[in-house]
Each structure stands twice: as C-alpha cells, then as structure tokens.
Design a protein that fits this description.
40% of the residues lie in helices and 18% in strands. It is an alpha+beta fold and 180 residues long. Strands 2-1-5-4-3 form a 5-stranded antiparallel sheet. Strand 4 and strand 5 form a beta hairpin.
Length: 180
C-alpha cells in the first residue's frame, strides 16, 4: 500500500500536485482499506488491459478488411454523411487514376477530378447524386469511360448502417463490365 501509492499520492497520501489525489480524507472513492484500494487498482489495470486488447483486435480486423477490399477488382468508395471521402480501395485508383484522394477530399472535389474521364460529365454527376441520395433504391447504372481506357463501368451503391443505428454513409462500387 505505502510502497505502491506513495509514487502518485505522496508519502502521507495527501496527494501530489498534478498526480494523485488525497487518499486520506473522508472521501474514499477507491476503498477505505489498503486491500480495497489495491483491488481497485488491480481491477482498473485489468479493465485497461481489456480495452487495449479490444483496440488491438479492432485494429487487426480493420487491417484484414482493408487488405480484403484492396484485393477486389471493383473500385470501392466510402462517402460520409457530410460528403467527405472516408475511404477507398486500390482498385478505385486503377479505374479512375485522376482521382487523387487526400485525407480531406470532399466528394465534390472527387467528382470534379473524375468527370472529364466520362463521355458525359452530366450523366456522371446525375448517376453519382442518385447513388448517394437513395442508395438502397438505386438500381445501378452503366457509364462509358473514355479516358484513360475506354470501357463501360457499372456504378452501384449501398447504405452503410452500423449496428448502433443509421450513419448516413454510402458505399459506392464501380465495376468494369466491358466485354473483353
């Protein structure tokens, strides 16, 4: 008790400026015996270790998901409810190489960079707006890309709905459906 708590709470357990609060006043938040305080510290350390384990597992799962999405031939773009480009896979850059996406790229910026590649920039903007507005009802669309490679691309979309509720984010998938 004394050897562990002194480090943060001082030799008299009256607290140390900027570190630990008083342990010897009438407010015993963490227990009123050395055993209770040590148990509380142990419980907190276990809880912190569990949070770290869950964080690490989440990071590993995200890395596996990113690798999986990068292995897909279809371009995938995730757009947030505010219109920010949240994520994309490697194939999107292969299909639409002029679309340089930075961490703060908005969808308007992205559309402007990509639209010159299409036969009809108006059709591109219209299809993309429909796909974002009502992704669950969007039937998909075919657009003809003429630069850098002439090909037909199928655009589809889906709403992103996390377990906790609606996020408003939209996933756009772009597939090369040209006859080989």
């Amino acid at each position: 008790y004394a050897s562990l708590c002194i480090t943060c709470h001082g030799p008299t357990l009256a607290g140390m400026k900027g570190l630990g609060f008083r342990l010897n006043d009438s407010l015993w938040v963490h227990g009123n015996t050395p055993t209770a305080i040590l148990r509380n510290i142990d419980d907190r350390r276990r809880a912190e270790a569990e949070v770290q384990r869950q964080f690490t597992a989440t990071q590993e799962a995200l890395a596996r998901l990113a690798a999986l999405l990068d292995a897909v031939d279809d371009g995938i773009l995730l757009i947030g409810p505010d219109g920010a480009v949240l994520s994309r896979n490697r194939a999107l850059g292969d299909l639409l190489p002029a679309a340089h996406l930075g961490p703060t790229t908005g969808v308007g910026e992205w559309l402007a960079a990509v639209e010159p590649m299409f036969e009809s920039s108006e059709a591109w903007r219209r299809v993309f707006a429909e796909a974002r507005r009502a992704p669950e009802a969007f039937p998909g669309a075919l657009l003809h890309q003429y630069w850098p490679v002439e090909r037909d691309l199928r655009i589809t979309s889906a709403p992103v709905q996390p377990a906790g509720g609606a996020s408003g984010a939209v996933l756009i998938a772009i597939s090369d459906v040209s006859e080989a």
